[in-house]
Each structure stands twice: as C-alpha cells, then as structure tokens.
Amino acid sequence: MKPGELLETIRGILGKVDVEEAVASVRGVEAWMNRFAENRVTVSKSWRLMEGVVYLVEGKRSLGFEISNIQPEAVEKAILHAARLVKNAPESDVKPILHTGPTQYGEQSLGYDPGILELVDGSVDMVEEAVNAASREGARKTSGVLTFGKGSRLIYTTTGCEGSEQSTFIEFSVRAFYDEESTGQSVRCGSSRRDVDASEIGEEAGRTAWNARNPRKAKPGVYDVAFKPCAMANLLNSVGESASAYAAEIGLSYFKGLKGLKVASDIVTLWDDPRNPRSPVTSLFDDEGRPTCRFSIIERGVLKSYLHTSKTAQRLGEDPTGSAYFSTSVGDMVPAARTLIMDPGDVREDELIKELNDGVLIHNLWYTRFQNYATGDFSTMPRDGVFLVRSGEVVKPLKGLRLSDNMVRLLSAVKRVSVERTWVKWWETDVPVLTPSCVVGGVRLTKPTK
Amino acid sequence: MAVSLGAEYAEARLQEVEAYGFALRNGVQEPPTFRGDRGVYVRVSVDGCLGFASTNSLGRGSIVKLAEEAVKAGSAARKLGYRTRFSQESAVKARWSTPVQRAFENVPLEEKMELLKVIDGGLADINGEAKLPARFLGYQELRELSKFINSEGSEVEATVERVGFSAILTAYKPGVGSAQRLIQKGGSGGWEVVEKWSLEEAVKREGEVLARTLKEGKRPPRRRVDVVLGPEVVGIICHESCGHPQEADRIMGREAAQAGKSYLRPDMLGYRVGSEHVTIVDDPTLPSSYGYYMFDDEGVKAGERVLIEKGVVKSFLHNRETAGEFGVKSNGSARSSGYDKEPIVRMANTYMKPGDHRFEELIEEIHLGLFVKSFMEWNIDDRRFHQRYVGLEAYLIEKGELKGLVRNPVLELTTPGLYGSVDAASRRVEFEAALCGKGDPMQAVPVWHGGPEIRLKNIRLGER
Q1: Does A328 sit within 8 Å of B19, measured CB to CB?
Q2: Which of A183, A200, B264, B324 is the most buried (most CB within 10 A)?
Q3: Which of B258, B337, B370 is the mutation pick for testing A, counting most A CBs within 10 A?
Q4: Chain A to chain B, count of Cβ pairs less than 8 Å apart?
C-alpha cells in the first residue's frame, strides 16, 4: 500500500460516517541509518513506514487518533469507533476550526533532492570519509549517526483542502574522541545531499576533540559564554517549545503573559519557517489543513507571537499560525515549531572569541532540564569542547562544569551574534534549527561539591 | 528467508499495540484519543554485521522485501562494520502475560475520565494563599501483543497491559512567584493498578505541599549538612548513576554519539564506587511494575541483576550483543520500544535495597540537615559521573526533628562522592515510574526506579 492509497481508503470510509467535519492526513517515510561507534558501523537500519491521523469534529466535540495498523479492515474499524466516540466526547471550551477551502495544495516539493536516495548504496563510504577526516585531525575514536531518506505528507479535509508534499532529508552527527574526557561534535542537516559534507563534519569534530585534550577542572562562577551552534540549537529548541500557546496554558512556558514584551536582547530575532526549502523538515500545511507560513516568534527582542492551533488561538483571541500538530499525549491538536531560524548578527565567527575577551567557549549542551518551566529556571551539561578564554584567546580546555541559569535571563543577555549560521538537528535537538553562535553575558557555571 | 539470503542469524518481532488516553487541561476535558499500531522488524547478522529493517506494510511481498532489506543493510555495513558475536543462549518457546485482575475494557470510559475530574476538583480547594492556576493531568492505558522468533528456534509470545498517569502542577503566589511539580505513576496490569495509587489523595497532597513550599519555603543552609533522601530521589539516582553507566553497550561505546558512554570500563567489575550500605539491583520481574517483563526482546529469560553490591560494582546490564563481546551470558536486558526500533540494552526496574533503620532513626542523630523527599530538575553528564538533583519537597532537620520547608536545595555530586557518602538506609522501599530515553531513533521505555530513604553524611549543597 502506498500513502495515497491509505488516504483514499480513509477518505472512502469517512464518506460513510456521520460527522460534521473531518481531516485525514497520512505520513509516509522511507529512511536509512548508519550508526557507528569506535570507528566502526555498529548497525545499518532501514524503514518503510506510514501512518494515518484522523480527526473528527462535532461542534465543540472532537476526537483524533493515529493508526499504523494500515489493514483496510483495521482502519475502517478505527474510524467507525471514533465516529461513535466523538458523539459522546466531552465538549471543549471552543470549537476546532479546520481550514476552510477550497485549497488545493497540489503535489509539491519544497525541498527534494533525488541525489539523497543514491546514498542507499554508498552511505557507509560517507561514514568512512567522516571517520578518516576526524582521525586526520587527531581523533582516536569516532562515533555518530547518518540518517537520510524521503518523506511524504498528504491531507484531505471535508472542508475543502487537499494536497500532498514530498521531501528528502539528511542528518549527519559526528562525535570524535581523543580520549574519554576530550570530545568534539559536529552536526549538519538539510534537504539535499549537497547540504552535508562528510569530510568537513569529521574534521570539525576531530579538531575540537584534539583541542579539548587534557581538560582541567574549572572554577565555578559567573562567566560570559560563547555558545557555538550545537549549544545554541539546544537552547533555541527550548525557546520554540516555550512559544507554544498550549505550553503557556499548562504551565510549561516561560513566555506566558509576555507577548509584546521584551524577552530577549535587541539583537535576537527568531522565526518559525516551516517552508524553508533547506530544512530537513518542511511543511506546506499543518494538521488542521491550514497553510504554514514564516512568522517571527521573537523580533528584536520582543515576543511577537505564540504558536497557535485554531483552539489555542480562539482562547487567546488571536489568529491561528498554521502550527497545529496532532498529539497523542494530549489527544488534540497542539501548536509546535517546525523549523527555527535565528537571524544572523554582525560578528564573524572567528572574531567572536576576541569579542568574548574573558569567558568560556561552549560547543555543545546536553540534558537540559527545568526546575520550573514557568520561570525558565534550568540547568544543562556543557560537552564536546569547553574552553577557557582569556584576553580573546582560547587558553585551555575545561571539564566538570554545569550551566545553571534562567532561560529568559540568558536570552536577555545575548551580547553578540555571529554572521555565520549552521543547520543543526540531532538526537538532542529534534526541531531543525538554523543558528548563529552567540555571546551571552553573566552565565552561571557550577560544579560538584563532593 | 533472511538466513537463506546469507544471514548467519535472523530474528523478527511482530508487535501490535492498542492504546487509549485522555487529558485534563486546567479542569477542561481534552478529547479522548486512541492509537492502533501494527508492524514488524527483522534484525540480522551478516558476517557479524548487524542489519535492521522495519515496516508496517504486512503483505507477503512486503515481508519478503523486508528480509532482503535487513540482509542488504547488514551486508552493506561489512566494509566498515563492527563484527558482533552474539552470546550463546538456549532456544526457548514461551508465552507470558502481565497478570490482570480488572481489565480496562470492563471499566467505562466515563468512569476513567471522571477520575481526572475528581483529582482536579481536589486541587481547586487547596487552602492557602498560593493557588494552582495551571494543571495538566494525563492518563494512558495500552495493550501490547508481540511475537518474537529467531533462527535458533526461539519463539516468545507476550501480552503486556500497562497504565500510566502523569500530572504537572504549577503553584503561583502573587509577589513570590511559582513552583512546579511533575508527578508520574505507572504499572503493569489492569484497572486495579490505578485503584492502588489512590490518586485523588496523592495528587491533592502534592498540590498542598507545592503551595506550602511556595508560601513557606526558606533558603537551604550554606554549611555542610547531613542529607536524608526520600525513595523518589534515591530512585532517580539509582537510574542515572548506577543503571545507565552499567549498561554494557555504553561501556563498549555503542551509544557514544548520543546518550554517551560510562565512567566505568569493561575491567571495572569489583571496583568500589560506594559505601557498604549501597546495594542496587535491576529486576524486570517485579509484579505490577512499569518495566515488567518475563523474557526480553531477544528471547532471554529475565531475572534480578545485582549491579552494585555493598558498594562494589558487581555486574553490567547485557543483551546478547554485549554479552558476546564480554564473554558472558546475556542477563535479559534487551528491550525494543516498538516494531520500528532495534533491541538494545535497557533498564527495567532499578532500585536500592533497603537497610535496617527506621526513618526516625535516620534523622534522630542529625544536628543540622535536610530531608529531600522529591525533586524536579535533574541531569547528569554523559559519562554518568557528575550529577545534579534539585529538591522540591524538602525539610530542614534540626536536632533530630523535621522542621520547616526548604526551597530548591541543590545536590551536585560525583557518583563516588554520592554513593560513598551513604551511611544508612531505611527498611522500606518505594518506587516511582518514568519513561527512559535512549537509542537512535529515540526509544522511550517504561521503567520503575526506587529505594529506601538513605542518609548522606557531610554534604555541601550546590548553587542554583
């Protein structure tokens, strides 16, 4: 069965049930992955998957479900069950408003490179190229993951929307080790084979690991910090999550009540850009059938917009942003960022350390956890290259530090932003981010007491 | 099929899941939802190189293609592939299921949804100046059927029923700010598991403590103190700085690019990491546990694994892949979170064994100290050596007695620094539920972790 056939199956069954409105979408993916560790491929994987999402609306009642059991009889049974359940579902505070057509998205591809699929028979060579590049730069062992493939999304609503989109994606994450405490990581992603240069990634990771050898215990305190793109992507993923209006409603956002107010320094502008053709995740339409668009979340430091579904938008008296995504953990559409893009600054990357003058350079962050999402109090672990900077020069690698601070304070303390930007998506950063490096003032770094 | 195509080993796992769930947002019922999954994976070894392929297209032609894809993947890896040697294990034919007393389908949906309403109602009339303006309550139940076969003749069929509850509460007091609490419950079985949680009382108590913490909580002491940790905190410690670093795939470097490695090396069995009061085990067979299983996802029988015994590293968690590398038998730690994920080394229910103290005895000799009952923020470095837990419900101990609430005490300790400071443990053990993340693509598997109350001597608290 192909994704289009599954959508037609769902559409046919929907035609037989008595519901006010419905939206059906199908996601299909063919993907391949090489995981490698200690310079060797540990497993090669492939997937051929598709799933359907059906969302039924009856006034203020709604019910959605996901199904990967795609046997026609199982799909029919699920839809009939949902159609019965929705009649007796509890009424919500507002009615979901599906996008009203006619809107023909047609068959489109924002970012599609057939060249990616040629990697099916050559991806191990790409891994080898990255491993060899890291070794040339001084790494003793290299690990990572290379993932690529093609995806499709199709949508049909009873309110007049139809369309399909095809995309391709590639993500390459390389972590090089000089020894157990001296590591470097480099990440690239995109929609085209040309977006990822295995040698470049391997060299970057290997060079950082080499430079990070023999790290010294650091003195805890408050430092100005230069965050490289992997570290920034980790922080910006949290910003994207916090921009969700639903997160604000349930206490999981540090932006609640701050729309129109300063939440960052003047040089911070952040967009959600689902249609960026360079992103490994592109979307023409959201799960309510609404067209996606590029819009600013933070503009020159001011929180300009929350991400909205039709329901969160109504509750806040605002407009939907085309950000609806069906969530099985909530049972409803929730707003979510799809591709985060931070505007570049005016400092060249190689000048950023000089601009930092005295402080700490952090390449990557990992394991970010909050004491309080509503205030933004959190901590996270710097890794893959942490360096002390004195008088604009990197003087030595550090170890054993933790970043413990507040997210809004960090955003407000951004002092410099680099011209160059990097696309980041990896295990720790699930929303693609195009981000510069940034210098942030007065960051609290701590270490163990025993 | 896969063996005829050139694999020296092949396994397949078919999985079918039906899950139901619903949530309550600030007192408003979100729509109920369900999920229906069905798919299969094939994993092979070709000259020791692992290939994995998954699909949810289950027609005969698709399944034949799946076997070809798995063998092709393993074959393609040979150029740079790690040569895996699976441990030798006996073939088994088994069928197991989680015991269920009251099946979920025998409890009306309305009754289940009403439970969340009742819990939320209890939070609305909390006394005090602080209120709980943001409340999210979630419930999910699932039934998973799976069948595992391998080319050595093993066949294992499993039926697992599992239920989970979570809540995130935000207390707010004008002029003071806010505080948050994440509550997670989980177990295997039927509706009887939910009834045992006494959720209405349990969540209301958490809401009341949260509001009181916000209103009354004082700054923690700055001098060195003795610290008593509750089972919830001990559980996350056991999970993060014992269970994870003793996963053999991390020790081998298999997870180095994502979840990280371990401060332990393969030759560190027998290495002392804690005091004689520290014995930590992992046991998938605990009745009604969230991480319950009888056979792992490589068809190996499960049982208790002693990870740290009286402060000394005793064993690692193994699947057949790591056991073969270490020259030992698998101890049944292979888990796959779904038909699209490979089986990797995982924890199940990790906990510290009890001691011989009563709780009162743990605190009676403390002149100045803290009792940290629950936590919110936590993290640990990717070698599992440098960890932090920030307390939520925490009390000052003065002259052997519990006093007032303390806000956000920070424990920031190394793994040997923490386990080496334990000088006593209480007699009772409690468990908490969580979803543990690992692997690439990410696999979230249900686990329990827990322990007794333990006492740490001479701790300087960290900074917020």
Answers
A1: yes
A2: A183
A3: B258
A4: 298
> Do A278 and A190 have their domain in common?
no
**Considering the entire predicted model, what is its pTM?**
0.97
* Residue (of B7, B8, B148, B14) closest to B69 by Cα position: B7
Q: Which of B216, B237, B263 is the last residue of a domain?
A: B216
pLDDT, tens digit, 9 for 90 and up, residues A51-106: 999 999 999 999 999 999 999 999 999 999 999 999 999 999 999 999 999 999 98
Nearest chain A CA: its distance from B254 CA (Å): 6
Last residue of one domain, picked from the residues B190, B216, B242: B216
Q: Are residues A251 and A389 in the same domain?
A: yes
Could you list the residue range(s) of the whole structural domain that residue A417 is in?
215-285+294-308+337-450
Residues B13 and B156 in one domain: yes
Interface test with B, best of A222, A365, A372 (most B CBs within 10 A): A372
CB contact under 8 A, A371 and B140: no
Omega within 30 of 0 (cis) for the link into B245: no
* A332 → chain B, closest CA residue: B31
For residue B382, give its domain range: 225-459
* CB-CB under 8 Å, B256 with A35: no
Chain A residues close to B31, C-beta within 8 Å: 61-64, 86, 89-90, 92, 331-332
Q: How is residue A131 written in tokens?
A: 């491993």
Q: Final residue of a domain: which of A209, A228, A258?
A: A209
Distance from CA of B32 to the nearest CA of A (A): 6
The answer as to whether A332 is a domain residue is no
B172 phi/psi in degrees, rounded to 5: -135, 135
Residues B185 and B243 in one domain: no
Q: How near does any CA of chain A get to the CA of B172, in Å?
A: 10
Closest chain B residue by Cα to residue A382:
B381
Looking up residue B33, the CATH number of its domain turns out to be: 3.30.2290.10
| Distance between CA atoms of residues A374 and B179, nearest Å | 8
DSSP letter string, A346-364: SB-HHHHHHHH-SEEEEEE
Task: Return d(Cα A177, Cα B260) in angstroms, integer.
Answer: 11
Q: How many domains does chain A have?
A: 2
- Tell whether A255 and A144 lie within a shared domain: no
Is there a single domain that holds both residue A144 and residue A200? yes
Q: What is the pLDDT along chain A (450 residues), one digit of tens a residue?
A: 899 999 999 999 999 999 999 999 999 999 999 999 999 999 999 999 999 999 999 999 999 999 999 999 999 999 999 999 999 999 999 999 999 999 999 888 899 999 999 999 999 999 999 999 999 999 999 999 999 999 999 999 999 999 999 999 999 999 999 999 999 999 999 999 999 999 999 999 999 999 999 999 999 999 999 999 999 999 999 999 999 999 999 999 999 999 999 999 999 999 999 999 999 999 999 999 999 999 999 999 999 999 999 999 999 999 999 999 999 989 999 999 999 999 999 999 999 999 999 999 999 999 999 999 999 999 999 999 999 999 999 999 999 999 999 999 999 999 999 999 999 999 999 999 999 999 999 999 999 998
Contacts of B408 in chain A (CB under 8 A): 371
Q: Which of B227, B440, B443 to probe the A interface (max A CBs under 10 A)?
A: B440
Residue at a domain's end among A190, A209, A228: A209
Say if B1 falls within a structural domain.
Answer: no
Cβ A174–B257 below 8 Å, yes or no? yes
Q: Answer yes or no: is A318 within a domain.
A: no
Mean pLDDT of chain B: 96
ipTM of the predicted structure?
A: 0.96
Return the CATH number at A73. Answer: 3.30.2290.10
- pLDDT at residue number B129: 67
| CB contact (8 A) between residue A44 and residue B76 | yes
Cα separation of B249 and B256, whole Å?
A: 9
Task: Establish if B60 belongs to a structural domain.
Answer: yes
A63–B32 CB contact, under 8 Å: yes
pLDDT score for A106: 87
